Amino acid sequence: MQKFLRMPLLLALLSCLMMTPALSQADEATGQSAAAQPVKVNASTALPALQKRLDQLKQQVSAAKTDKKFTGLNDGAQKLAEDADKLAVALAPQLEEVQAQLDVLGPAPAAGTLTETPQVVSQRNKLNNSKTLLTTQIEQTKGIATGARNLSSQISGMRRDALKTQIALNTGSVLGGNFWSPLITPNDDDAARFDDFGSQVHDAWTQAWSEDWRAGTGIYLLLALVIGLFGRKLLDRPMNWILPRWLPHGRFRRSFLACFTTLSTTFTLGISVQLLCYIFTRLPDTSQWVNEFAEQLVELTYFSAVIAGLGIALLSNSHPSWRLPGIADPLAKTLGSFPILLASFIFLFGIIEQLNNLVGASIAATLFGNGLAALLVALNCLIAPVRVNRMRRKMRADGEQTEARSTIAGLIHLLISLTAFVILIALLIGYIPLARFVTFELLWIGLVVSSLYLLIHFWVDLCESVFSDTTHSGKILKSTLSVNDRHLSLAATLFSAIGKTALLLMAAVALLNGTFGTTTPLELLSKIVDMWGGKGLESLNIIPAHAVNAVLCLVVGWYVLRSAKRWLDNDFLPKTMMDRGMRASLVTLFTNVGYVLIIMLTLSSLGIEWNKLAWIVSALSVGIGFGLQEIVKNFISGLILLTERPVKVGDLISISGVEGDIRRINVRATEIQLSDKSTVIVPNSQLISQNVRNATMGNAQGVATIVLTFPLDIDPEQVRTLLLDAYNLHESILENPPPSVSFKELGPTGIVLSVTGYVNSPRMVGGTRSDLLYEILKMLRAAEISLSQTQTMVLEQPLAKIAAAEDEA
C-alpha cells in the first residue's frame, strides 16, 4: 500500500527534474531575445494613438480644399504608414520570443498521459495569450498602415482633382527641371503602377490571341482598321452621287454635306476605336483597369473626332464650292491640317490624363501631362493665325482676292490668339492649372460655337428648302393646304426662328454647364467676397458661381431678346397683314415683357428668393408713395396704350394744342412728331386722362373745306357749279361721298359759300386744299367773278369847320 502511495510522488519528482533543464533553456532563450531587443514597445498605448491619428486624418481630408492642405495631409498619411510599419517591425521580435518559449515548453500533453505542474500550465497559458495579443496587434498595425497608404492614394486623387479648379496655384514653370522630371527620372511608384497596367494590357492582348479568341480578334481588328482608315472615303462617294440628284438646288446641299462630313468622321473613328476596345472588353478575364480605360478611350475618341469632323466640314477642301464660311481656297488649304493636329493632341494627352487618373499617378506626372497638352494646343492656336495672315499677305502681293472679313470673324480670330497667348504666359510663369483650365474652356467653347454655326445653317437652309415654292415639298404644301407663296415664306421664317432660338438656348446651357471634365474656378471670386467681410449678402444666398451664371444669363438673354426683336421687326411681322402701328406696338410689348423675364431669370440665377426681397418691396412702396408715383402711372399708362391701343404708332393725333404723328410709344412717354419734324414728348398718362383727337383712328377720312365770300351781285348757281367742278376734277377728292356746296351766310358784306370734299386720309387735307385754292382762283378769274372786298368807311370834315374849331379852342 505504501509502495503504491510512493509511486505518484516519484513520478512528480521525475517530472520536476525533467522540466528543470527545459525551464533553463527557456530562460536562456528569453535572455537572448532580450539582449537582441532590449527595448520593448508598449503596443497597448501606441496602437490606439495610431488609430486616432488615422481617424483625424480622415476627418481633415473631408474638409480639405487647398493644395497646401492636401500636401500636408498626404505627408501625414505617409508618416503614419511609416510609424505603423515601425510598430509592426518592433512587435515581430516579441512575437518570435513568445513563440520560441512555447516551442521550448512544447505542446500540452494529451489527456491520460503524464500531467504537468500548475506552474508549467500557467506559463503556457500566459505565453499563448501573449501570442494571441501580439498577433492581433500586428494585424491591426498592418491594417492601419494599409489604411494610411490608401488614404494617401485618395488624397493624391483629390489633389489631382483640386488642381483642375485651383487656377491660382503656382506649380512651377514648364522651363524648370521639376516639370520634366516625370519624363527624365520617373517616380518609382509611377513606374510600378504603369508597369502593372502595361502587364494587364499585355495579358489581355495575349488572351485575345489565344486559340479560343483568335478568330474573333482578327475579325474585329480588321473591321476596325477598315472602318477607321477607309470608312469616311467609302461614305463620301455615294453621298457625292446622291446630293445633286436627290436634294433640291440651293444652300441646303452645302449645309447637309457639312453635317454629313462631321457625322461620318465622328462615327467612323468612334466605331473603329469601339471595335478595338471590344477586343479586350469581351474577354472574361480582363482586369477592371483595362475595362475602365477602354470606356474612357471611346468617349475621348468621339470628342476628338467631333473636333476633327467640324474642322474638315467647315474648311471643305474636298468641295470648295460648297464651303459654308466665306474662306478663300488658299487659306482653307493652309488650315487643312490644323483641325486634325488639334484633335490628335487632344486625343493623345487625353489618354495620358486618363491613365494618370486611372492608375493614381503622382502629382508631378499629372502636371506634366496637363502642361504639355496645354502647350501644344496653345502653339497650334497661335501658329494657325500666323500662317493665315502670312498667306493673306502673299495673296495680296500676288494680286489675288481674299475673302471678305467680317467683324465677328476678326473678333474670333483675335480672341483665339489672345487666349493662346494667355495659356503660354501661364505655362511660363508656372500656373499650369490655369493653363489647363483655359485650354479646355477654349476647346469646349470652340466646339459649342462651331456646332451652333453648323446647325443654325443646316436648320435655316432646311426650312427654306422645305417651304420654298420651287421645291417638291413646297408645291405639295401649297396644293394640300391651299396657301400662297407669302404664307410659305412666313412659315419658313417662323420655323427657322424657332429652331435658331432652340439652338441658341441649348448652346447657352452647354456653355454654362458643360466643361470638358472641369469645373468653373471660382475660388478667387469667393476670396474677394470674403475680403469684403460683410454678411449682408448671406441672407440673399448670393455665391460667386451664381453671380457668374447671372451675368451670363443677363448677357445671353439680352442678346437673344435683341435678335428676336430685330427678327420680329424686320423679317416676320412685315410678312403679315398687320399695319405698321400694330407691328410697332407688338414689338414694344414683346421687348418690355422680355426685359421683365430677363430680370427675373437673372435674379433666379443669383439664388435670390422673392421672400428675401421684402425690404426692397417696402422701400419701393414708400418711394412710389412719394416720388415714383408719376413714373409708375406713366408706366401703367404705357401698358394700357400698347394693349388697348386707343392710339398707335403712325396715328395723327391732337392733344392740348399739339398735333402730329406718333412715332414711338415708350415705357414712360410717347414721342409725337410735328409737321416741322420736331418732336414733342408727351407723358403716357396724359394720353389716358385727357381728351385726345385721333384723326386717323378707324380709317378716318379727311375733309377739305374752303369758305369763300362773294359780292351780292353774283349768280350763286354759277358759282356753285364752278366750285363743284373744281372739286370733282381734283384726283384726291372722293366721289363718295360727293362734294357739296353750302350757303353759309347772306350779309351786307356779301354771300358766304362753303365747299366741302372728302379725301382718303386727314394727312392729305392740307395739300389738297392748297391745290383746290389755286384751281378755284384760276377758274374764278376766267369766269370774271371776283371775291367780295372788305369795305372801309372814311369820315371827312371841311377845312373851314376845322379852322373855326381851332379858333374857338
TrEMBL record:
Residues 631-696 form the Mechanosensitive ion channel MscS domain. Gene3D superfamilies: 1.10.287.1260, 2.30.30.60, 3.30.70.100. The chain crosses the membrane at residues 217-235, 256-281, 301-319, 331-352, 358-386, 407-432, 444-467, 488-512, 542-561, 582-601. Keywords: Cell membrane, Coiled coil, Membrane, Signal, Transmembrane, Transmembrane helix. Residues 139-200 form the DUF3772 domain. Residues 40-67 form a coiled coil. It is found in: Cell membrane. InterPro entries: DUF3772 (IPR022249), LSM_dom_sf (IPR010920), MS_channel_1st (IPR049142), MS_channel_C (IPR049278), MscS-like_channel (IPR052702), MscS_beta-dom_sf (IPR023408), MscS_channel_2nd (IPR006685), MscS_channel_C_sf (IPR011066). PANTHER family: MINICONDUCTANCE MECHANOSENSITIVE CHANNEL MSCM (PTHR30347:SF9), POTASSIUM CHANNEL RELATED (PTHR30347). This is DUF3772 domain-containing protein. The lineage of its organism: Bacteria, Pseudomonadati, Pseudomonadota, Gammaproteobacteria, Enterobacterales.
